[in-house]
Task: inverse folding
């Protein structure tokens, strides 16, 4: 820019939440312009020895302002990065959960097949033969006697003995076939 002329510049402002976001370059220019105006006013009022100290103070103020602007942008970027990472972690968590669910389902199916195979193996090793009731007639006679003599159960002693003899004989016959 030529001395005395003002250079025009297009500035784009973005709304961010409750505030407005400006680029670091625009902020730097604004801070520099503000400091230059303050410096010109101070130069008019102070000696040259005081001016050197003022320049150091102005540089420090500018550094502080730029650092604050940088930090604000950094934290904004960090927040976005954090959200991106959290999203990525959720996706990975979902993927691993799906893999785990599939693995559990496969394991359940495999366990069920092994269980059914074990049952078949036990059934093959120990073939259970159905036992037909052999003492049914003795049991029925005993039940009829007890029903007809509710207060005189000793009258059914002979039928009890016949039923016990039949059941012991049936037990012995069955055990003999299993050996």
Result:
């Amino acid at each position: 820019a030529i001395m005395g002329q003002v250079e025009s510049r297009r500035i784009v402002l973005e709304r961010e939440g409750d505030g407005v976001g400006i680029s670091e370059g625009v902020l730097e220019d604004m801070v520099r312009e503000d400091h230059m105006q303050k410096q010109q006013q101070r130069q008019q009022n102070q000696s040259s020895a005081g001016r050197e100290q003022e320049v150091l103070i102005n540089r420090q103020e500018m550094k502080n302002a730029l650092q604050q602007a940088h930090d604000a942008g950094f934290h904004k970027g960090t927040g976005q990065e954090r959200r991106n990472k959290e999203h990525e972690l959720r996706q990975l968590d979902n993927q691993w959960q799906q893999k785990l669910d599939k693995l559990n389902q496969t394991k359940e199916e495999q366990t069920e097949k092994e269980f059914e195979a074990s049952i078949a193996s036990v059934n093959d090793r120990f073939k259970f033969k159905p036992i037909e009731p052999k003492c049914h007639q003795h049991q029925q006679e005993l039940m009829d006697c007890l029903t007809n003599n509710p207060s005189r159960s000793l009258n059914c002693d002979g039928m009890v003995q016949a039923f016990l003899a039949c059941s012991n004989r049936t037990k012995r016959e069955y055990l003999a076939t299993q050996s």
In short: Residues 146 and 154 are 9 Å apart (CA to CA).
